[in-house]
Backbone:
């Protein structure tokens, strides 16, 4: 018996974008891969550097959510009922304009995360290849939102594109990509045999080669749910911090007990999502640390969005923090 | 099945957003979360065998659910052997009719707190049949007067501060009740005491049922269960079939784990009820209805539980002890309370709602609210994998219930 239920259109838009364009927001391949120009990474090799377009996507999501929440002032659940495209049309602006409205500095920051990650891994002695404009999003959101049938088909395309690299190992920047490749693909997609690693694990293995990070203050680690609970990676982050000489403070909820940043709720329940991020920021700031560190694009975006104007505490991705050591 | 979920989603979202701005909820839940974490960690320190016992209970529950048919039959036989009357209700309607039939019309009924009661809308049904029904749990009593629904499974009125309670009581009792908790408790005590002794029927649920002995194990702190199951001449237990375990010994293990994760070192009262009150003190002639009820009925309710039990992934949902631990750790629940729920609350509640309390349509907004962050699994004494079940139910919403779309192990 087929269940025919109309879900909020925003979900279907995301689904369509992934399936048709290989990216949840239909970003163009050139946009997603622009960060790599400076590095000219080969398309084939042993270790495939995989961004999945996720860090690059983050400022766009925020911009969309801001628009949706803005349009939703009446509290009518507007964003859900209308869907992203409709809202944008109704407001007299098209999606491309919204995309264009993302601040250049935000785009640059998140694109740079990918660049920095690649440089760090190279400096640690890893030989990377990269799919460039051909790289496809992992499909983690298809899994997350229940579009499993679509993921079965789309996953085949992803696997084909990964295979073209000839790589034995894939290193994922986003824990969501790592999770879906490692835990879901083997059960849903045929012919997936690549070893899946996270950026954190790769760095951890060679952490004695990391340059020290000069940072007078302490950091507080926000464990991402997927990394800590699904992938069991938490001590590694502390070890890495020790290697670079950074003092770590622990929030009242961390590691396997970490508090979600609220990010997963952003598309459907932006207000709730924001409130949850706010509260998590509170827990992290309570430690008095100078910087909140995370290792997930969505946590980074959600926590950044949750910090109050004028807050003393910065939010950085682990990648950005480690790169401080290389930048001097 | 079909439906336009957009309206459901719209209304539900409005409600969630409103709740997230409600300072009553914020204060109450913040306090509750803090207290929960502190008392549970104290209790774990004082009773360090608890996690091991929880592991044992997981096995007991797994085996019991796998063997539910036989245990149900055994439990029913035990109840009858003890001179009670046992019923099996396939669905909600049947359960309601059985209970209404036992009670009849124009009776006074006192009732203990029960999620199953909420699932069945038991009080409303009995009231429609012309009975006077009183919730005897203080929190539920407040909600009954407020025409509201529970916002937490253990502390149903968690979102109502004393000032609001005073207002509600002043209106109901027709005199000024000050916003003083002790006085608020006292006035309800007086009022209900009268009802217990006038009541024709007491209704309770049970936290665990032992099949071998037919013992109903009921955990509480207020003492309202003791009174409502002892004072009226008739006691009806309405309990889900998933609560049955093989032996009395095992039922005690389940009970201890339940209350421990419900933040009690030990609860004030645990009742073990297995039949009508009886005496043989005069000439050794057994006579029923000595001090307690003369009649004892147990209604075992299925209402979708067997379907759950037969599903490889979802049978684990039946292990839920309703300790409430997961809710305190849920980031969404922490800002919205039971508004993230439909009869059953939170992530585990979205699964229960899908199977026994409204189906996939009612569950859909909840299923898409869950962050799938997984912290509830860490807290849960039964390690119930809520995120996995939520994922599969989303898949069923999108793709229908054809099995071959779900995860399998042979793909690669
Ligand atoms: S799901 Fe687990 S933690 Fe939540 S109420 Fe049930 S037993 Fe308790």
Residues:
């Amino acid at each position: 018996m087929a269940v025919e239920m109309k879900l909020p259109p925003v979900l279907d838009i995301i689904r369509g974008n992934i399936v048709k364009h290989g990216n949840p927001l239909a970003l163009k391949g050139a946009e997603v891969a622009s960060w790599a120009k400076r590095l000219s990474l080969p398309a084939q090799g042993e270790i495939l550097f995989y961004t999945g377009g996720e860090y690059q996507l983050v400022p766009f999501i925020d911009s969309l959510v801001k628009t949706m929440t803005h349009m939703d002032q009446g509290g009518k659940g507007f964003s859900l009922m209308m869907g992203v495209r409709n809202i944008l049309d109704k407001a007299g602006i098209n999606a491309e304009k919204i995309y264009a409205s993302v601040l250049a500095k935000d785009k640059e920051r998140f694109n740079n995360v990918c660049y920095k990650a690649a440089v760090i891994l190279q400096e640690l002695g890893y030989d990377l290849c990269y799919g460039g404009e051909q790289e496809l999003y992992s499909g983690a959101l298809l899994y997350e939102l229940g579009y499993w049938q679509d993921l079965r088909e789309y996953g085949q395309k992803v696997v084909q594109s990964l295979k073209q690299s000839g790589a034995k190992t894939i290193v994922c920047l986003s824990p969501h990509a790592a999770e879906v490749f490692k835990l879901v693909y083997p059960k849903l997609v045929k012919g997936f045999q690549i070893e899946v690693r996270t950026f954190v694990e790769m760095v951890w293995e060679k952490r004695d080669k990391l340059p020290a990070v000069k940072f007078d203050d302490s950091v507080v680690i926000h464990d991402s749910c997927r990394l800590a609970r699904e992938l069991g990676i938490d001590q590694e982050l502390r070890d890495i911090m020790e290697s670079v000489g950074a003092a770590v403070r622990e929030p009242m909820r961390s590691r396997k007990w970490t508090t979600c940043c609220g990010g997963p709720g952003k598309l459907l329940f932006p207000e709730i999502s924001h409130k949850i991020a706010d509260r998590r920021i509170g827990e992290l700031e309570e430690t008095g640390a100078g910087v909140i560190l995370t290792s997930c694009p969505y946590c980074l975006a959600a926590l950044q969005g949750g910090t109050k104007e004028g807050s003393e505490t910065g939010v950085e991705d682990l990648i950005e923090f480690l790169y401080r050591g290389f930048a001097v | 099945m079909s439906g336009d979920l957009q309206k459901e989603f719209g209304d539900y979202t409005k409600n969630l957003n409103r709740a997230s701005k409600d300072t009553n909820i914020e204060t109450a839940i913040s306090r509750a979360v803090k207290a929960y974490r502190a008392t549970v960690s104290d209790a774990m320190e004082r009773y360090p065998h608890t996690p091991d016992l929880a592991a044992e209970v997981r096995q007991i529950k797994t085996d019991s659910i796998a063997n539910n048919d036989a245990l149900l039959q055994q439990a029913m036989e035990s109840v009858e052997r003890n001179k009670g009357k046992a019923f099996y209700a396939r669905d909600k309607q049947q359960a309601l009719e059985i209970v209404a039939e036992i009670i009849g019309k124009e009776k006074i009924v006192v009732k203990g707190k029960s999620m199953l009661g909420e699932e069945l809308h038991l009080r409303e049904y009995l009231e429609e049949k012309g009975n006077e029904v009183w919730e005897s749990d203080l929190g539920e009593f407040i909600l009954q007067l407020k025409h509201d629904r529970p916002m937490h499974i253990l502390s149903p009125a968690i979102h109502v501060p004393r000032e609001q309670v005073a207002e509600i009581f002043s209106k109901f009792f027709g005199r000024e009740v000050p916003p003083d908790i002790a006085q608020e408790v006292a006035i309800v005590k007086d009022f209900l005491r009268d009802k217990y002794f006038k009541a024709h029927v007491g209704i309770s649920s049970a936290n665990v049922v032992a099949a071998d002995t037919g013992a109903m194990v009921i955990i509480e702190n207020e003492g309202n269960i003791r009174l409502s199951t002892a004072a009226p001449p008739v006691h009806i237990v309405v309990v889900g079939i998933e609560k049955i375990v093989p032996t009395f010994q095992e039922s005690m293990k389940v009970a201890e784990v339940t209350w421990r994760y419900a933040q009690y070192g030990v609860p004030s009262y645990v009742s073990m009820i297995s039949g009508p009150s009886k005496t043989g003190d005069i000439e050794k002639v057994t006579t029923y209805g000595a001090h307690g009820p003369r009649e004892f009925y147990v209604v075992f309710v299925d209402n979708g539980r067997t379907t759950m039990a037969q599903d490889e992934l979802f049978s684990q949902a039946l292990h839920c002890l309703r300790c409430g631990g997961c809710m305190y750790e849920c980031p969404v629940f922490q800002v919205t309370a039971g508004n993230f729920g439909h009869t059953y609350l939170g992530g585990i509640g979205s699964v229960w709602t899908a199977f026994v309390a409204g189906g996939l349509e009612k569950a859909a907004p909840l299923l898409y609210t869950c962050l799938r962050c997984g912290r509830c699994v860490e807290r849960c004494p039964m390690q119930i994998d809520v995120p996995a079940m939520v994922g599969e139910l989303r898949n069923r919403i999108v793709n229908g219930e054809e099995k071959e779309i779900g995860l399998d192990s042979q793909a690669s």
